[in-house]
Amino acid sequence: MSELFGFFPFDMGPTEAWALIYLMMAVPILLVTKALRDGVARSADASSTKAKPEVLAVTPEGYRIPAAAPVARHERLTVGYIPRIDELWPVAYLRGKNDAVEETLVSGALSAGWLVASPDGKAYQNLGGVHPGEPVMGRFFDALKGKQSPTPAEVRAAARSVAYGIEDAIKGDLASAGFVRPASVISTLKVIVLAGGAIALSLGVIRIVVRAELTQGDAPFPFVLFGAMVLVALTTFLMTRGLEESTRPKQYLAWLDDATSSLQSDVRGGRRTNPLEVCLGVAVGGVAMLAAMPAYAAMAAAFAPPPQMHTSSSSGGGSGDGGSSCSSSSCGGGGGCGGGGGCGGGGGCG
Question: Distances in Å between the alpha carbon of 200 and those of 7, 207, 233?
């Protein structure tokens, strides 16, 4: 080995300072590896996000036959296209998993008018009526069937059962739309990272072997260099984590948030009450959109995050803390997770 690498800095005498030299070589290698990994990942993600708008004619054009108005093709779950009703569930799931889907379901029922607040404002009245035409909202409608005066907790429980029931279908939909990196891309990214890490580690191995040959094994074990190599190996391992997460969800949600900013403002201010518009606003922006909807108030506690437990250092103060942390003022805010969907009966979501 010393015949191949008998040059500076590998042929230096035994010194723990070589660990610093090693890091000065290994860190740039890891930085280049990370840049290459991220570049390949962005390229792979971008290839699945490009919208391909096409214009389709609905009827033939010919002698005395006027050309039909062109119809723009809709690209499902793609930047540049506002989601349709059946895309709201994947959008909500991207934003906040099943919790966001539950919010969207409840907001859809509230905005459609078949679920209304009770006179005392503490529960709900299920008015029933026409079964929603949208399948997911239809499942929510059926889940509340038979409950004439459901409590907020019962409303959320019904929404949760529907959300978990469609979770696998949503995941499949997102995978088909390119929001999940395929195994081939993940494997390529791992190879890039492992190759870079192997090159960085090999520099340390070469130094140890050359050092041993030059000193005929009399030099003490290079603990500091070995520690630096362990650090490089750990960094390499961490760089292989999270490769399954595509950059597309964040980009898509950012575009949606910008594209629907005006709609969200109108929904939040109560100027738009159409179920489909309310659903879209909640799916993208969360239940804060429903602050102006009186029927939402009762859902605040049901959708509020669980209160944090506080422990008091003094023997007397524990119970007082617990009560105040769960007060309606702290839990109320975003609560009305009603979100979702004007997917209910009328209003375009039905």
Answer: 18, 12, 9
Among 112, 114, 106, smallest CA distance to 161 is for 106
Q: Which of 152, 178, 222, 184 is nearest to 78 (CA)?
A: 178
The neighbour count for residue 347, using CB atoms within 10 Å, is: 21
Question: Are the beta carbons of 313 and 289 closer than 8 angstroms?
Answer: no
CA distance linking residue 244 with residue 181, whole number of Å: 6
Mean pLDDT, all residues of the chain: 81
Q: What is the per-residue pLDDT for 107? A: 92
Joined together, the tokens standing for residue 78 give 């793609």
Compute the CA torsion angle 60, 62, 66, 70 (nearest 10 deg).
40
**Residues facing residue 116 across a β-bridge:** 125
What's the residue count for the chain? Answer: 350
**pLDDT at 190 exceeding the cut of 70:** yes
Q: Please tell me whether residue 137 adopts helix, strand or coil conformation.
A: helix
Report how far Cα 219 is from the mean position of its chain's Cα atoms: 53
Residue 319 pLDDT: 42
Neighbours of 158 (CB within 10 A): 24
What tokens appear for 197 in the block? 């890490």
pTM: 0.68
What DSSP character marks residue 12? P
Domain boundaries, the chain: 2-47+182-239, 85-178+251-308+318-335
Gap between the Cα atoms of 327 and 300, Å rounded: 12
SS3 category, 115? strand
CB neighbourhood size of 338 (10 A): 35
Q: What whole-number distance in Å separates Cα of residue 156 and Cα of residue 181?
A: 32
Nearest to 147 by CA among 162, 125, 121, 129: 125
State both tokens at 339: 């979100």
> Residue 101 and residue 303: Cα distance in Å, rounded?
12
Average pLDDT over residues 252-258: 95
Taking a C-beta distance cutoff of 8 angstroms, is the pair 294, 116 a contact? no
